[in-house]
Amino acid sequence: MFFHNFKYTFKILFKNKSLIFWTFAFPIILGTLFYFAFSDIEKKEQFDRIQIAIIENELPNEIWNQALKELSEEGENQILQLQYTNIEQANKLLEEEKISGILILDSEQKLIVKKNGINETILKFAIEEIKQTETMLKNIIHSITYESQIQDTKNSINMTIQKILQMKTESMNNIKDVSVNNMSYTMIEYYTLIAMTCLYGGLLSMIAIQKNLANMGSVGKRSATSPTTKKTMILSSLLSSYLIQLIGIILLFLYTIFVLNVDYGNHFSFVVLLTLVGCFAGLSLGIFLASTLKSSENSKTGILLAITMFGCFLSGMMGITMKYVVDKNIPFINRINPANLITDGFYALYYYDTQTRFYHNVIGLLLISCFLIFISILFLRRQTYDNL
Amino acid sequence: MTIFKTFLKVLNKNKGIVILYSAILIFFAAFSLQNNDNSMQFEKEKPSIAIRNRDQEEGFTKEFITYLKENSEVIELEDKEEAYLDALFYRNVNTIITIPEQFGENFVAQNNPEIEVKGTNSYESELTNLMIERYLKVAKIYFTISPSEENFQKIKETVEEEIKLEMTSKLNTNELKKMATYYNFANYSILAGCVYVICLILSSFKNEKIKKRTIISSVNEIKYNRILLMGNFLFAIVLWLFYCLISIVLIGNIMFTKQGIGCILNSLLFTLCAVTLSFLISNLIQNKNAINGIVNVIALGSSFLCGAFVPTELLPEMVQKVAHLLPSYYFINNNEKITSLENWNWEHLSPILLNTIILLFFSCLFVIITNYLTKKRRKQT
């Protein structure tokens, strides 16, 4: 009887178009949309050379020319891309936003930009550095002339200038850059997608349980009067819904890994573990809603979709900042939010070298699931009817 | 009038879900606006950094930290490895600077101590690197030439040297960007609101008995559609009005400038287009259960593809090309153009006008297709 019910529940669930849309098709559609929207975002946010027009009204100043040349020299450290032109042409380019600024090299240097922005800030910063070098040279020359009483002041100044300019061009060995590459925050979006799919899987277990409840429909009534024990009916129904859930999530994984190039870190076995536990959390949420609420199937579906979407919202689906804000200010909320525990588990695998955080998430999910199932059992057990 | 009254009756019957759904959508828009301050859409002039100082805050280290504080936004975090790493990943800070023990002392003594930087490889972290490098270079030069305490003042003077700056645009770009973000989000809120509510209400008119009674009545299908469309407009206008009112509360007086009025009118035009599109969709779908799925696919799909959530310039080129086929693209493009409009002359206004005409064209197209479909279906029935 176990297998019989398992088989037919499997068939019934698979033939429910609306269920299959939410658990199979919708995550794939949403993942594709994420891919369209986010695939270039980080690339375009990376630092690119800043276009600038230079207008020389005076005889060239050696320090400025030298410095501009260095800043625009092709290679890894290139910051600026220069074009020497006249003011009319430069204004036109600035208006069309083809350049970020115009540098006028007059007796006093002036920078013209169109608006506030990070490009303009970097530009201002780079140009100011040249001006500062000039000031520094003046300061040092002044102190040398003031301090040295010897005849050879001119030679000393020349040597110092050479030394300073050389030090300016040398790369700094006081800064150690320890930045890492696994910083792609758009991954969080895909992790919330997996979380959403795991929890949407609750729809399957909800419908599966629903059909065994005598107070929820004629199928439930017939099941209740059958000689098969309730335990067999419910367990076989849940097993088939869990199986369908896993099929859906495997399809989503294959799609995100091979088509959308999502990076789940290097710990495949942990990813599998988290997925199994995540689906179990979805399953328990479905059982919980099916057994505790007495409303219609449609409203239960609505409630489950709303809970899942709200959980995903808090775990960063509609903007990753949300997850950080909640994690930082009201961490309790995200510790009992299954969508966040799943998302955070994947995040921990992707970003952290250790597994402590990952295990915390898995244990959290298991505790929540067991709690929900325990409550559901209290509602489901010993339901007897005098008549149906 | 009977049709219009029935429409209002059904709307009234479903008012709970309609109000709830509309409120959630408007809340999302408002929230996305508040949240954006910290995310990828706005470019800050000062990079946000976190400093982990293991040295005493005195002497050179103190000077260095003061310089960093003046030139960047220093975010205070709990002194835990995890807190720093999370803040970096979620871009709350763009660089973590770790100053080692006895850094100041060793630097002044020219022992080449190293500070550690961990960044996000973005513009902001690049700017922070430039900033640190500049300060340390200037300091190093001063200390190499003459190692004395007086250098602190000289370093300060040198790094504080500024260039004369002129800004050509008189527009309040930050506020206008906020406005564009909010109204771009309208693509999702208004479209999802219209499709959901209109499909929900019109599904009541699809009941077979009602449908048959309507067919045998004397009202022709075009008039019938027109009255229903009017009813739909009534709901959509209320939704739009709320959306605009909230923009005035959240964005402020800038909504009363030319750009603000432009965005409001543009969103009205889009609402018109959204209603006609929803009307068409409601005619296409037969199953009430499919509404939720269709709303999500259409509203989320067009919002992601056309740049309602992510600025259009950050979308891949192929996606931008495909987006040209959807009305949302022209609405969002108009928002961007209106909010960056400084010279109100023909050269700058003509692209906005063209987008407006395209939006109107889409609306007419949707109405024509709907009328054609209804006529065809009636004949079949």
Q: Can you tell me about this structure?
A:
The complex is a heterodimer of chains A (388) and B (381). In chain A, strand 1, helix 4 (62-71) and strand 2 (80-84) form a beta-alpha-beta unit. Chain A is 68% helix and 6% strand. The longest helix of chain A is centred in the middle third of the chain and has 30 residues, at 118-147. Chain A starts with a helix and ends in an 8-residue tail after the last helix. The radius of gyration of chain A is 33 Å and the shape is elongated. With 388 residues, chain A is an alpha/beta fold. Chain A has a 4-stranded mixed sheet with strand order 2-1-3-4. Chain B is mainly α and 381 residues long. Chain B has 2 domains: 2-39 and 172-380, no CATH class; 48-160, abc type-2 transporter like domain (abc type-2 transporter like fold). A 4-stranded mixed sheet of chain B has the order 2-1-3-4, covered by helices on one side. In chain B, 41% of the residues are buried. Residues 37-44 of chain B have low confidence and may be disordered. The chains are: A alpha/beta (388), B mainly alpha (381). At the A-B interface, helix 2, helix 3, helix 5, strand 4 and helix 6 of A face helix 2, helix 4, strand 4, helix 6 and helix 7 of B.
In total, the number of strands of chain A is 5
User: Which word captures the global form of chain A?
Assistant: elongated
- Biggest sheet strand line-up of chain B: 2-1-3-4
Please state the average pLDDT score of chain B: 85
What is the total domain count of chain A?
2
Order of secondary-structure elements of chain B? HHEHEHEHEHHEHHHHHHHH
Total strands of chain B: 5
Sketch the topology of chain A as an H/E string, one letter per element.
HHHEHEHEEHHEHHHHHHHHHH
Fraction of residues in H or I helices of chain A: 55-70%
* Count of the separate structural domains of chain B: 2
Strand content of chain A: 5-15%
**Most extensive protein-chain contact, per-chain counts:** A-B, 81 and 85 residues
